[in-house]
Amino acid sequence: MLTVELHTHSSLSHDGRDPVDLILEQAAAVGLDAIAITDHDEIDASLEAVERAPEYGLIGIPGVEISSKAGHILGLGVTEAIPPGLSYEATLEAIREQGGVAVIPHPFQESRHGVMARITREQLAQADAIEVYNSRLITGRANRQAERFARSRGLPMTAGSDAHISEMVGQAVTRVDAERNTVDAILEAIERGGTTIEGKRTPWHISFRQAAGGVKRRAISGLGALFSR
């Protein structure tokens, strides 16, 4: 069994803080076997992590968190950026065209761009896997809804820390029963449901700090764009 972190963000995300090297250092320190950096609509840091992961004894999984019209969708195993703003179905198709796996993160957390605000349960069931434990939970209700749904439909399940700072990498992990220590084997195991979930809540004060940091970075970015005109 491999211990895998499938949902993290670097400074390339509008609400992320840390560079790739700090994320990989943390992943190695907490004993992970593999990690995916899944920035919002950006893939360069993820590809950098794939190249550098072996230096830390890790497997780097390329990925991205795509802002579809319905909400956020994780594309694992993709190596090219997928445009934001596509429909739910078109985003799933674009991920699969690259040989990737489409995972729906925090689907029932509508305040955090969960897709269930805009799609049906039948559409949700079209995904390759459902993230049933996201560490940045408020009450845990949305995670329980996601797990009940995935179990009722026999869908593969994953977990992710959704870390926006390096210290939170590894808060939630997916144990993957992969036949080999490779990206392809990990993705294949996820698709067939060869996973178990482990996770714990991101502490409240850190969740608030991550959110506040994201707001600050967006404001600075907006001011920079304004004055560069």
Strand content: 15-25%
Determine the mean pLDDT: 92
- What is the CA-CA span between the terminal residues? 52 Å
Strand count, sense and closure of the main sheet? 5 strands, mixed
- The number of helical segments is 7
What's the order of the H and E elements? Answer: EHEHEEEHEHEHEEHEH
* Structure summary, number of beta strands: 10
Indicate the percent of residues in helices.
25-40%
For the largest sheet, list the strands in their spatial order. Answer: 3-2-1-9-10
Rg from Cα: 16 Å
The parts where pLDDT drops under 50 for at least 5 residues are none
Structural category is: alpha/beta
Q: Which geometry do the CA atoms define?
A: globular
Your description of this structure?
- By secondary structure, the chain is of the alpha/beta class.
- The chain is 34% helix and 21% strand.
- It has seven helices and ten strands.
- It has a five-stranded mixed beta sheet with strand order 3-2-1-9-10. A five-stranded mixed beta sheet has the order 4-5-6-7-8.
- The longest helix has 24 residues, at 204-227.
- The chain is globular.
- The model has no long low-confidence stretch (mean pLDDT 92).
Topology of helices and strands:
Elements lengths: L1 E7 L11 H10 L4 E4 L6 H9 L6 E3 L1 E5 L4 E5 L11 H10 L3 E4 L16 H4 L4 E6 L6 H13 L3 E4 L11 E5 L6 H9 L3 E5 L4 H24 L2
Parallel strand pairs: 1-2, 2-3, 6-7, 7-8
Antiparallel strand pairs: 1-9, 4-5, 5-6, 9-10
